[in-house]
Structures are given as structure tokens and as C-alpha cells.
Design brief:
Blueprint (H helix, E strand, L loop, with lengths): L1 E2 L2 E2 L39 E2 L5 E2 L12 H6 L1 H8 L5
Antiparallel strand pairs: 1-2, 3-4
The chain binds iron/sulfur cluster.
């Protein structure tokens, strides 16, 4: 099942990659969360490891269809990070 806000790849060996998730509602569209680079401003359910690595293991925000618009709304912040900065 796929549309512009939802996609599944049940052939993936990791599907669903969050084992506590409901497989029928699990979207692979944002397999790698585009908000990761926003650090502590992503709005998700993250923790940091002892070595300072952001850990998203407990976050299902990008894997739910109803959060599609929420992800897109935050993309301005991601685009801004990539913008050429004035010296
Ligand atoms: S998966 Fe969740 S915690 Fe991780 S970057 Fe995306 S929104 Fe933030």
C-alpha cells in the first residue's frame, strides 16, 4: 500500500524496524528521519547516549502517516541548515 503520505516495504529484512510498532500502520516513507539533523529541535522522542549520539529508537513520529505534514512543516529548519551562510 502506498500513496504520497504512506509507504511500506514489507520485503525489508528489518520491517518493521521498531519492533513495538503496529506493522499495519507502519510507514517506511521516512526510513531515515529527515529531522535527525535538527538535533534537540526535531520535536521527537529521542535520547542521547553517554557518548552524545542522538538515539531515536523510541520515536515513531516519522513512521506514522498522520505525522506526514508535521515532518514537512519542520523541513524549513533542515533547508536552513543547508543554506549557504554569509561569511
Ligand atoms: S526519529 Fe523522532 S527523535 Fe529522531 S530525529 Fe526524527 S522526529 Fe526526532
Amino acid at each position: 500500500m502506498a500513496d504520497s503520505t504512506f509507504y511500506q516495504n514489507r520485503e525489508c529484512e528489518y520491517f518493521p524496524c521498531h519492533k513495538s510498532a503496529n506493522a499495519d500502520r507502519f510507514s517506511c516513507l521516512f526510513c531515515y528521519c529527515p529531522l535527525y539533523t535538527l538535533g534537540d529541535r526535531c520535536g521527537g522522542n529521542f535520547t542521547y547516549t553517554e557518548t552524545g549520539i542522538k538515539d531515536c529508537s523510541n520515536c515513531l513520529i516519522p513512521h506514522r502517516r498522520e505525522n506526514y505534514e508535521k515532518i514537512l512543516e519542520k523541513m524549513d529548519g533542515v533547508i536552513d541548515l543547508a543554506r549557504k551562510k554569509s561569511p
